[in-house]
Design brief:
Elements lengths: L1 H7 L11 H4 L6 E3 L11 H7 L4 E4 L6 H6 L3 E4 L10
Parallel strand pairs: 1-2, 2-3
């Protein structure tokens, strides 16, 4: 993130957060589009608490659908069946 922040700091309309969890405050959903190690084992309870809609769209298929369902998160992995919260 530091590289992106310095590279795009002059562009209007782009906001930055101090941490991945801070970026989720009030977000409608989470889209995962990287395989960076820091995103492989997140705190799903903290993610759930910050999202307006408990949904994760996972373009890298990093997570176990059953685990996300236990946290009440809807999970939409690319190329696999979606898992709805509570079911």
């Amino acid at each position: 993130m530091p590289a992106a922040k310095s590279a795009f700091s002059g562009l209007a309309g782009i906001g930055y957060a101090d941490s991945p969890l801070a970026a989720l405050e009030g977000a409608d959903a989470l889209a995962v589009v990287t395989e960076w190690q820091e995103f492989r084992s997140p705190d799903f309870q903290a993610i759930r608490a910050r999202l307006k809609t408990p949904a994760i769209f996972d373009g890298r298929n990093l997570y176990d659908p059953a685990e996300l369902a236990r946290f009440g998160l809807e999970y939409y992995p690319i190329g696999r069946a979606a898992v709805r919260a509570g079911g």
